[in-house]
Amino acid sequence: MPSADPSAETPRTSAYEPVSPQEQEPVRPTKEDEVARAGSELIGGPVGRRVLFTASWWTPVRIIALVALGMFALGMVQKMPCYNGAWFFGASSQYTHACYSDIPHLYQGRGFADGLVPYFDRLPGDMEYLEYPVLTGVFMEMASWVTPGSGSIQHQEKIYWMVNAGILMACTAVVAVCVARTHRRRPWDALLVALAPAFALTATINWDLLAVALMAAAMLMWSRSRVVAFGVLLGLATAAKLYPVLILGPLLILCWRAGKWREFGIALLGTVSAWLVVNLPVILLASDGWSKFYTFSQERGVDFGSFWLILSQRMDSPLSTDTVNTLATALMLLACLGVGALGLTAPRRPRLAQLAFLVVAAFVLTNKVYSPQYVLWLIPLAALARPRWRDFLIWQACEVAYFLGIWLYLAYTTSGDAHKGLPTEGYQLAIVVHLVGTLYLCAVVVRDILMPERDVVRQAGDDDPSGGVLDGARDVFVLGAAGHARQTALHTSQTPAVKWGAAPDLPR
Question: What are the boundaries of the region Disordered (predicted)?
Fold first, then answer.
């Protein structure tokens, strides 16, 4: 039956058509996504246009934030067997219940229970110093201040986990709100983040959500063309976890293609400055403690979740750590070069979220370790890069399978002669499932870049909603014959005031 609102269904056929008022209305996922439409039957079917656009307290952003908090709470409930004793009284039971978390174990293991100051005070044992970036160390230390020092150590560790979980819940709300607001017309895409099962399962394993929240806030600032704020937030995110700095690579490629060198320079300066503000005092006053994160990352051997582990377990003479470091770095550089070439030669300038997802995914795939919570790095970027429920859920199913696989494997290795859990071959299969799922999502994102007419975001009439100053910008440099042909066509166009590949600049 024909739609009463054809502009919401039919994409613009010309790159030079302006955006109509109807196209600026929020996109309804239940109208463009068959999986979302089928899933909406659980709550009564798709929401009508009149209801969706009626002003009320129940805005999309608020609904998404509440859903995200509800899923986070369910994730906390899933950890209850460990909270009730499995963390302390049975090494294998925390794995069989799939409720393991680093947080309670590191409360005593990294000196917080004894009042040691991260990076400044040496730890007993082989670790010497806290092996986390500075801003994450500050997060951990501040949570220890709120944790009461009375009672048994088990009681203190449980309270420490609860305190951290409360702060991480706030980070979850920040992630959900920022993703919902990054694409102005597509707030409902953030439901992919809010309802992601791997997000709920891994949110309280470690402190990664701090960096994820800062990264999501940075992406929001860039989408609003607030370049200085983007740089500062990206620098803070990098001070909490290393992976956010990778976003500067895709940003360089896109700014190069659009000729936005000034904006990239400001973003780079803001990132470096914010990172130095956090790190420089510790570098000057406790250099040995500060460098522990970097030396630990370099010296760490092949570990869980990586294809390097499969190779190590199947080789008679496993590769040395130095060799793996060299090969992993080479593979990552090759992947980055591939993403860069894709960004400069694509028929239409890729969206920032697409290249950002590919670069972070490349790091995840080539790294010598893949902890289960690393999926948190990718979930917000995946929702922005490829907001299709089918592909997202396929990937999430693979990540949940890996989440269960690693704990069952650890249960197998810690249960002694009983061998309760997943043997080595089964765990290797779980790793392969994780790798294939991530590669699948990368493949559909690459396809969207090479065939922009398949990109669901651009089908709705947008150019790059998360691109900020890049949104609707004219290309000034494109590699390849196809790119030069497009530039020639653009410069000879009869409508030079309108930018290639998007509508004219509109008030922001």
Answer: 1-34
Note the pLDDT of residue 12: 40
Looking at 183-247, list the stretches that DSSP marks H as alpha helix, in order from N- to C-terminal side: 191-194, 197-202, 208-223, 227-240
Tokens of 126: 């082989």
Give the span between the Cα atoms of 376 and 373, in whole angstroms: 6
Taking alpha carbons only, the member of 76, 172, 161, 168 closest to residue 112 is 161
- As a whole number of angstroms, the distance between CA 358 and CA 438 comes to 10
- The model's pLDDT over 320-334, given as tens digits with 9 standing for 90+, comes to 999 999 999 999 999
Q: Nearest-5° angle of CA 137, CA 131, CA 228?
A: 50
Task: Indicate if 392 and 281 belong to the same structural domain.
Answer: yes
Q: What is the mean pLDDT of residues 275-290?
A: 97
Q: Are residues 199 and 231 both part of a single domain?
A: yes
pTM of the predicted model as reported, rounded to 2 decimal places: 0.88
Sign of dihedral through CA atoms 215, 220, 221, 222?
positive
Range of the domain at 41: 27-56
39 and 151 housed in the same domain: no
In this predicted structure, what is the pLDDT of residue 460?
82
Domain count, the chain: 2
Are both 45 and 77 inside the same structural domain?
no
CB 99 within 8 A of CB 86: yes
pLDDT at 38: 55
Residues 37 and 181 in one domain: no
Q: Is residue 186 part of a domain?
A: yes
Evaluate the CA torsion angle 356, 180, 212, 282 in order and state its sign: positive
Buried residues in 323-357 as b, exposed as e (16+ CB within 10 A): ebbeebeeebeebbeebbebbbbbbbbbbbbbbbb
Residue 4 lies in a domain: no
DSSP letters of 62-116? HHHHHHHHHHHHHHHHHTHHIIIIIHHH-TTHHHHTT---HHHHHHHHTTTTTTP
* Rg of the chain over all Cα atoms, to the nearest angstrom: 24
Instruction: Specify if 3 maps to a domain.
Output: no
* Cβ count near 368 (within 10 Å): 21
Q: What is the pLDDT of residue 53?
A: 45
Amino acid at 120: F
Confidence (pLDDT) at 316: 87
Residue 186 and residue 44 in one domain: no
Lowest mean pLDDT among 113-127, 411-425, 459-473, 488-502: 488-502
In a domain, 91, yes or no: yes
Q: How far is it, in rounded angstroms, from Cα 22 to Cα 34?
A: 22
Q: How confident is the model at residue 461 (pLDDT cuts 50, 70, 90)?
A: confident
Other beta carbons within 10 angstroms of residue 447's beta carbon come to 13
Q: 162 and 37 in one domain? A: no
Helix (H) or strand (E) holding 314: helix 307-314
